[in-house]
Design goal:
CATH topology of the largest domain in chain B: Cytochrome-c3 Hydrogenase, chain B
Number of helices of chain A: 12
Distance between the termini of chain A: 44 Å
Structural class of chain B: alpha+beta
Distance between the termini of chain B: 35 Å
Largest sheet of chain B: 5 strands, mixed
Strand order of the largest sheet of chain B: 1-2-5-4-3
Oligomer: heterodimer
Largest interface: A-B, 27 and 28 residues
Radius of gyration of chain B: 24 Å
Number of helices of chain B: 21
Chain lengths: 318, 578
């Protein structure tokens, strides 16, 4: 197989698996939440309800593709597309296993992924603005403020890893973890990254842009049909992305004994995704200003401290 | 003490007429021009004044036959005052003549009078001079007529068929247009254009059909104006067309989470008018069922409160436990949420066989679950941050605005009707009154959570000390009368037949009975004209007074705080609008 063919196979394979996983996660999350909340969740369609995804897809695809007359049409249509594409693009640099992965981008994979996560906020802000709805607008504003605050230490939290590995290249970072996963020396960074990542993809307890009990659905309150579906699946792709990045940066990526590398990657991924869903089942939502204060007054100094300490130790050891 | 107060008022103001009522609340008639001086005196001129306007309502007297010794008038306004310090009530009445009666407003004396006066205007057409915004409150602004007047039809069939002409539709639509000025809000502030956010009547966190119009500066609330009436079903008007007996199911649906708790003040008031003494066993069963419904209602509150601040899971656990409560209630009453199970003079049936096993299981089952919920909700740091210091009001504010129940006790006053004015045999039970200190959302939640345990304590005492005996009073007005008596001879059979078909004829008189309901003090003020129907049924509900406090609680807070505040009030809209 030529390099082009294998590259294409890789790209399409990952795309299909990722979108499928994103859609499948809607079912997994609902079943897991059901389990933790003493109820069943969707269990009617197909074995254990697994075909619920198909039913939802059929429903969502056949819904009228409606744009409110008061909306800014162009931005309204563009927003959900950004939500999905930005996160899908970010996944291009994730090294799933040796030989599996779209590209390494000549060793600047990590900044690219971070940039794409940052870019995804445009979907929320544009959706909030273009909907011309006050609830959407408040959601969009919250998303912008939240992204600004949390993006800062999202980047800073992984710099410790970059310093230790001496590279922005994700494959090199995985390779550098052969002896010890960075989750151990960089435990603070790991925690910060998880929190900032969850804030970036606005999952509860950081779901303020859509805060159902306050803003009804926030930035996507006016969306329906497949456009809503793209936000919805985009959110789950976001979960997969953050979990995959965390696995790559802190949990040794595909490394592990006995089992094939791909399986190791998937196992670690599943555990982190489960954790993200468990957080949703367990925690209330902080208030907007509390979230900001937490970001700037606790997380950012901690990230800087972590960075300084890592730098000092690395320098001392040299 | 009450006699002293009454003679003091008589000596000081003169022209006062006393009225005997079946409930024993001192009731005085004053002239319209003496009303404000007398109320002002009671509000601030005496030691330990009446700082709570418990209720303000009116009666259309034009068709009433039995009112011996009462001043003539077409309408009467009724002011029910309450003093916690005195542990005393007083009722003042004013006779009003003519088709467009007027009274001076008392908002400056009790801020809570605002909504009550608007309601009296809406329902009876009594205008209050000096009220800053005397608009309709329960009905839409375009409504014609005042429904609680006796000449206003109670049924749609008593009037012309309704037709919506294009002109009428256009006018109604135009009336819906939002003008901030009409709501008492400004469009612009110092260098800011405010954002007006319409929260409700359909919104996940308004607990029913309730609308709050918000004036926002960013996410900070500058002002909030609640808009109620979307759940108004005319429960008070229906009281005047149902028999005393057949009105019981309507009461269930007032606080629809309270079930038989709603029957209690109603049947107690009818029994007070009829002079029925309910046997012990019926009293204890009533207490037990009422406390079960308190638990059911508080569980819904607990779960939805957690959900309002974003915790998704607790509500599922608590609704599951509420189902267990309903299973017991269903086994006893045959229905779950609205059993309509209390009767005039007793209860519908005796307890079924095996009830004690079900109840015993439950009172052992719930406490460990409550411990878990405490960890999950009250001890959760995020929950504490979202609720501590949010929506706080002091004890003075609570008293002046008519806050009752857990909303009052969260401010630190241990005033529980069951303890202070025991009814239905509550004096025989041991239980504590949980209180808070800060009067914020957290304390309101914590007080209710603690009350669930006290209710369990009461239920356990019912379980261990259930007296034997009849479940219905041996009284001719008990409805339906005990069947074994009815089948004894033709006279009792006729009495039974009349009592069941026409309904009981309750002696003329007036009585108000208040109970400590799930959400605060719930009172039924009944006026009988000696017929098979009530002449006037007034339902004083706690939620009405509490919702009036929303602007006060949320000014200067953030949008997310409003949601926590709404959750912490624990209201249902049927309890507000009736």
């Amino acid at each position: 197989m030529s390099a082009t063919a294998s590259g294409l196979a890789n790209a399409f394979g990952i795309l299909v698996v990722l979108v499928g996983l994103g859609a499948g996660l809607t079912w997994i999350e609902r079943r897991l939440l059901g389990l933790w909340q003493d109820r069943y969740g969707p269990n009617r369609v197909g074995p254990a309800g697994v075909l619920q995804v198909v039913a939802d897809m059929v429903k969502i695809l056949f819904k009228e593709d409606w744009v409110p007359p008061f909306a800014d049409r162009a931005a309204f249509v563009l927003a959900p597309a950004i939500a999905m594409t930005a996160l899908l693009l970010a996944f291009a640099v994730v090294p799933v296993a040796p030989g599996i992965g779209v590209t390494d981008l000549d060793g600047i994979g990590l900044p690219f992924a971070l940039a794409m996560i940052a870019l995804s906020v445009y979907s929320t802000v544009l959706a909030g603005w273009a909907s011309n709805n006050k609830y959407s607008l408040l959601g969009g504003l919250r998303a912008a403020a939240q992204m600004l605050s949390y993006e800062v230490f999202l980047g800073l939290s992984v710099m410790g890893v970059v310093m230790q590995a001496g590279s922005f290249d994700l494959r090199a970072i995985v390779a550098a973890q052969r002896g010890l996963w960075y989750a151990a020396p960089q435990c603070v960074g790991f925690l910060l990254f998880l929190l900032a990542g969850m804030a970036g993809i606005h999952r509860l307890p950081f779901d303020l842009p859509e805060a159902e009990s306050e803003l009804v659905a926030g930035y996507h309150v006016e969306y329906s049909g497949m456009k809503f579906g793209m936000f919805f699946v985009g959110e789950y792709i976001g979960i997969v992305l953050v979990a995959a990045l965390a696995v790559t940066l802190f949990l040794g990526g595909w490394l592990g004994p006995a089992l094939p590398p791909l399986l190791w990657f998937l196992i670690k991924l599943a555990v982190l995704i489960g954790l993200v869903i468990l957080m949703r089942a367990a925690l209330p939502r902080p208030r907007y200003d509390q979230l900001m204060a937490f970001g700037w007054k606790a997380m950012l100094p901690l990230a800087l401290l972590n960075l300084t300490a890592t730098g000092a130790i690395l320098l001392a050891g040299r | 003490m009450a006699a002293d107060l009454v003679s003091d008022i008589e000596a000081r103001f003169g022209g006062v007429t006393r009225q005997e009522t079946a409930d024993g609340v001192p009731t005085l008639w004053v002239d319209a021009d003496r009303l404000r001086p007398v109320l002002g005196h009671l509000r601030s001129g005496i030691e330990r004044p009446f700082r709570t306007l418990f209720d303000l309502t009116a009666i259309d007297e034009r068709f009433r036959r039995h009112r011996p010794g009462q001043p003539q008038g077409d309408f009467s306004a009724v002011y029910h005052l309450l003093s916690y310090q005195r542990d005393q009530d007083i009722r003042l009445k004013v006779a009003l003549c003519g088709d467009s009666p007027r009274l001076p407003s008392v908002i400056d004396l009790w801020p809570a009078a605002d909504w009550y006066e608007r309601e009296a205007w809406d329902m009876f057409g009594i205008a209050f001079d000096g009220h800053p915004r005397l608009r309709r409150i329960l009905l839409p602004p375009t409504w014609e007529g005042h429904p609680l007047r006796k000449d206003y039809p109670a049924r749609a069939t008593e009037r012309e068929p309704f037709r919506l002409t294009p002109d009428k539709e256009a006018a109604e639509q135009e009336a819906l247009r939002f003008h901030p000025e009409e709501w008492g809000m400004r469009r612009h502030g110092d260098g800011t254009d405010y954002l007006f956010l319409n929260l409700g009547p359909n919104h996940p966190s308004v607990h029913g059909v309730f609308r709050v119009v918000l004036q926002l500066d960013g996410e900070d609330i500058v002002d909030a104006v609640p808009d109620i009436g979307y759940h108004h079903r005319g429960a008070e008007k229906m009281g005047e067309r149902q028999s005393w007996h057949s009105y019981i199911p309507y009461t269930d649906r007032v606080d629809y989470l309270g079930g038989v708790m709603n029957n209690l003040p109603y049947v107690l008031a009818v029994e007070r008018l009829a002079g029925i003494v309910v046997p012990d066993r019926a009293q204890v069963i009533r207490v037990m069922l009422a406390e079960f419904f308190r638990i059911a209602s508080h569980l819904v509150f607990y779960g939805t409160m957690a959900q309002d601040v974003g915790a998704l899971s607790p509500v599922f656990y608590m609704f599951t436990d509420r189902e267990r409560v309903f299973r017991i209630i269903e086994a006893i009453c045959g229905a779950r949420m609205h059993p309509s199970w209390f009767r005039i003079g007793g209860i519908a049936q005796d307890l079924p066989e095996g009830w004690d096993r079900l109840v015993a299981e439950f009172v052992d089952y719930l406490p460990p679950r409550l411990d878990e919920y405490e960890t999950l909700v009250l001890r959760n740091r995020l929950f504490q941050r979202r609720t501590k210091g949010v929506g706080a009001y002091g004890l003075d504010t609570a008293i002046e605005w008519g806050a009752t129940g857990p909303s009052l006790r969260a401010c630190g006053l241990d005033w529980d009707y069951r303890k202070r004015r025991p009814y239905s045999g509550y004096e025989r039970f041991e239980f504590d009154i949980p209180t808070g200190s800060r009067g914020d959302c957290f304390d309101r939640t914590a007080v209710r959570a603690a009350e669930i345990r006290q209710s369990l304590r009461i239920i356990r005492q019912c379980l261990n000390n259930m007296p034997a005996g009849p479940t219905k009073a041996d009284h001719p007005l008990t409805t339906p009368p005990p069947k074994d008596l009815a089948l004894r001879d033709i006279e009792t059979l006729i009495a039974h037949f009349l009592g069941v078909s026409w309904g009981p004829v309750i002696p003329a008189g007036e009585a108000a009975v208040t109970v400590e309901a799930t959400k605060g003090l719930n009172a039924y003020y009944l006026v009988s004209d000696g017929g098979p129907l009530s002449y006037r049924t007034r339902i004083r509900t706690p939620s009405f007074a509490h919702l009036q406090m929303i602007p006060l609680m949320c000014r200067g807070e953030m949008l997310a705080d409003l949601i926590a505040i709404l959750g912490s009030i624990d209201f249902v809209m049927a309890d507000v609008d009736r």
